[in-house]
């Protein structure tokens, strides 16, 4: 699926209208002959993980999109359509039948069967395995029995094999959007060879994952350097137009940009902020833009006393001039955000955070002092994501408008920042970015803010929010679901566990050695479209 989710680099933004025209319209120079055997080089940050059920950030998901084929993908209207699945059906939105297409094999030659999905999903859902995306199996019957230090069960009772190419999924409650969820990375299958014993992942599997997608691993993951894949000729779906991909790992976006300019890198997924003003001149029609689903926020550790009051959090939000930072730092390449969901999904409303999103320094300072806000604020961010300029600008505003000391602290890599915030180590406010996992309001709300959400790193918990989210999931249709999700978003506006800052847009560039470069709403290069030019 498009691994959406936690985004390491500055997500450069989304023109609120989806009709935004891309510079070059997704094409390249188009002057050379395609070379179907050549490999292309695409920039990523160091992945945190490469196990499907443990990968919830965009760099890891870009790699997994090469190695695996999803059950479903999405059309231009964001509706799911079958890919590795022959059909996904339900008569009541509770019991779903998944039929697999015949002919898929893993890269080690194993036939893909229903067991491979059941084994992978059970592994992901079993709490002692500590998988980052375990949350996505929560809707399946039996999930609760797999939780805790000593679970009552090891396998989801809601998963049943019918035959080698068919299985059923019984949910605890009806969920009309379950088919859409199946495009997510967590729902990829795993081969028998991935396990050393039932339910035990083989040591070292993550270093050279075996999938059933259009590319297979070439060697192993070379940490902080690269991951290489090559075309898998036995793949029964649409074949890629290149012989392989080198996912080259960068810690600094500016270094990647320099390599694109010199044709030493083929695709940079996010133009660094400091290069935005010259990218059009530097790259010509190789500088491109397209809609994205990303959202940038500053998150509060709500479990820390100094940030436990909504009044403190709202005052900080009012002290930040989103419009000025969007203009001065991002050259209007991003859209100021004052809501918790992206304009690309049904149910989006403008300015759901209300007064907390209005820049009002005097009111902010008075409210901050009245609520007893801390005298010093730390803003933590990942140094491999091109965030320093806007973090520094935000700190300067907080110093001036709240009268506090503010400092930006960079962690070397996004994986390092995630590890710290997951362990609840003190990092102050921290920068987070979200790219949707599947097109739904629920995906912007559940993983990030529900009590047990997979990416709820702020300790936020509101039982009424959880209740509304559950009611939305059980709603019989999209309209009814959206009403519940919007009510849940209204509660977020009251509590403000994070400060929405900007909506993203794909601002990317490529070398003269590739063409037909396209990026989707999920911050991923389309690996079936890109072509190498000889």
Automatic annotation (TrEMBL):
The keyword Chaperone does not apply. It comes from the Bacteria. Keywords: Signal. Residues 81-455 form the Solute-binding protein family domain. Residues 1-21 form the signal peptide. SUPFAM superfamilies: Periplasmic binding protein-like II. The keyword Signal applies. InterPro entries: Peptide/Ni-bd, SBP_5, SBP_5_dom. Pfam families: SBP_bac_5. This is ABC transporter substrate-binding protein. It comes from Micromonospora humidisoli.
């Amino acid at each position: 699926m498009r691994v959406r989710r936690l985004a390491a680099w500055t997500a450069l933004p989304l023109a609120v209208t989806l009709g935004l025209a891309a510079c070059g319209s997704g094409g390249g120079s188009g002057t050379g002959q395609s070379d179907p055997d050549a490999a292309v080089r695409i920039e990523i940050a160091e992945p945190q993980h490469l196990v499907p059920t443990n990968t919830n950030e965009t760099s890891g998901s870009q790699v997994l999109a090469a190695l695996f084929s999803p059950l479903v993908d999405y059309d231009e209207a964001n509706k799911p359509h079958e890919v590795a699945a022959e059909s996904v059906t339900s008569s009541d939105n509770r019991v779903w039948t998944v039929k697999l297409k015949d002919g898929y094999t893993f890269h080690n030659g194993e036939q893909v069967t229903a067991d491979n999905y059941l084994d992978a999903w059970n592994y992901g859902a079993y709490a002692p395995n500590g998988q980052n995306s375990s949350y996505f199996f929560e809707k399946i019957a039996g999930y609760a029995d797999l939780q805790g230090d000593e679970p009552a069960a090891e396998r989801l009772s809601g998963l049943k094999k019918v035959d080698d190419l068919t299985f059923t999924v019984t949910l605890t409650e009806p969920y009309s959007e379950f088919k859409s969820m199946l495009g997510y990375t967590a729902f990829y299958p795993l081969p028998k060879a991935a396990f050393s014993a039932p339910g035990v992942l083989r040591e070292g599997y993550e270093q050279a994952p075996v999938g059933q997608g259009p590319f297979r691993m070439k060697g192993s993951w070379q940490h902080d350097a690269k991951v290489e894949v090559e075309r898998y000729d036995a793949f029964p779906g649409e074949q890629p137009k290149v012989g392989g991909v080198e996912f080259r790992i960068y810690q600094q976006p500016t270094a990647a940009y320099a390599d694109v300019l010199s044709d030493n890198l083929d695709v940079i997924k996010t133009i660094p902020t400091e290069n935005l003003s010259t990218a059009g001149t530097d790259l010509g029609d190789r500088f491109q833009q397209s809609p994205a689903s990303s959202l940038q926020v500053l998150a509060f550790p709500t479990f820390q006393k100094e940030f436990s009051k909504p009044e403190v959090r709202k005052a900080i939000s009012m002290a930040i001039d989103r419009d000025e930072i969007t203009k001065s730092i991002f050259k209007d390449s991003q859209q100021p955000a004052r809501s918790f969901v992206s304009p690309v999904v049904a149910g989006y409303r403008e300015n759901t955070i209300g007064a907390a999103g209005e820049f009002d320094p005097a009111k902010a300072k008075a409210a901050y002092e009245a609520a007893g806000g801390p005298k010093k604020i730390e803003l933590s961010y990942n140094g491999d994501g091109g965030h320093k300029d806007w973090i520094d600008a935000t700190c300067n505003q907080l110093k001036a408008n709240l009268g506090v000391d503010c400092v930006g602290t960079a962690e070397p890599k996004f994986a390092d920042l995630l590890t710290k915030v997951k362990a609840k180590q003190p990092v102050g406010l921290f920068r987070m970015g979200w790219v949707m996992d599947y097109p739904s309001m629920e995906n912007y709300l559940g993983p990030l803010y529900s009590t047990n959400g997979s990416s709820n790193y702020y300790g936020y918990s509101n039982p009424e929010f959880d209740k509304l989210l559950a009611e939305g999931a059980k709603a019989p249709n999209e309209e009814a679901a959206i009403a519940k999700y919007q009510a849940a978003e209204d509660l977020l506006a009251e509590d403000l566990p994070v400060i929405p800052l900007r909506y993203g847009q794909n601002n990317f560039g490529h070398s003269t050695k590739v063409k037909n470069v396209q990026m989707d709403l999920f911050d991923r290069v389309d690996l079936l479209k890109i072509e190498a030019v000889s």
